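thought: fold this chain, then report.
action: predict
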Amino acid sequence: MDVKTRIINTPEGEQCRVSLRNRFAEESDDTCSKTVTEILTRVQKEGDAALVDYCQRFDCPKMRLEHLRVSPEEFDQAEAEVDEDFRTTLKLAADRIRRFHERELEDSWMMTRDDGTITGRLVRPVDSAGLYVPGGKEGSTPLVSSVLMNGIPAQIAGVSKRVMVTPPNPEGKVSPVLLAAAREIGIDEVYKVGSAWAIGALAYGTESIAPVDVIVGPGNQFVAEAKRQVMGRVRIDMIAGPSEVLIVADESAVPAFVAADMLAQAEHDPQALAIVITTSTALVDGIKAELAEQLPKLPRVDIARTSLQDRGLILLAQDLDQAIELANEIAIEHLELQIVEPWQWLPKIRHAGAIFLGPWTPEASGDYVAGPNHVLPTMGTARISSALGVETFLKKSSIISYTRAALQADGEHIQRLAELEGLTAHGNSVAIRLGKG
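observation:
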């Protein structure tokens, strides 16, 4: 298959470099933005009535208000429908993700000065979190991993109320594997609501769904735009763009592995971004040959082909130093190092959502069972953002406690700064305590 190939040290290569650096899509589609604004406004004003109407129009024509919440009987039925192989995999993935994220939990701390002043930080979870889980082709491709990756960190953080929303299929049902995954991690409040109206319900609340403090989870452009519009009223994980991978490969890389990992990203979405930066000219032909061999075998062949034809890219670097530096500039969501001694190059990586080292570490391992979170910054935001984690559901409060002696020692400095800023009452609040007001 013919994927666009460029040499970095050429005008065409430099043009690709600039385009990749500036790929952040800051403004959403205007039509999408207006549509989402209308949806959110309606949900805010009409509550449940708006949710039911949107659900009937776009997901399940026979949906009724009393069926919006998944019932205990539906949970029990789901448990009966899933097989033991799935249960084994579900428990393994949940355990790996839980063990990894337990290391992220932060402790409150305090420090004391000699004059008796105590300062510190109090770490507390938010009260509630909303988990958005896409339905995936009317429920035929349920994103079980999204349930685990979003729900487990919130659980570890200590969030007392976790609510899951997901669009129903045309019969008004939710995939049994999604419900089994929810129950596995202790979530029993699930609503059959999707798209932007689900985000509106979580942000503003309705008669049935209480508003939450944090909203996390992937979705289409309407979900992403809705999260952008409610951001500030609630915390969100991130505004994610199409999935992306960058594979740095040298002469040791196996063409079949590189091609397979490019296709693993390309099958997500026609806008998915699969890039290779290699120091080996010979590898380029091998990758293209493997793409031509593997692509036709994929059920999502049309999506993957469009992605590779429109956005796929192979860049030739003069050496690994240049390849790694460009990788840092691009700040990709998934960075693979299919090179000799990848651990030696790890200290040089500054910007990436997740880093996969060596030929036996496909990006798919991180999507499902490795343990780290797969909700990662895209569009170059790995320069400033991190993966979703326990900290997404935590907030910190400062602690300050003065003794009289401490205030006497600091009083003059406080008053001096207050005077400079023209805030007389600030200074007086110290002076009056010290009998100087």
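thought: worth noting. The radius of gyration is 26 Å.
final: tokens above.
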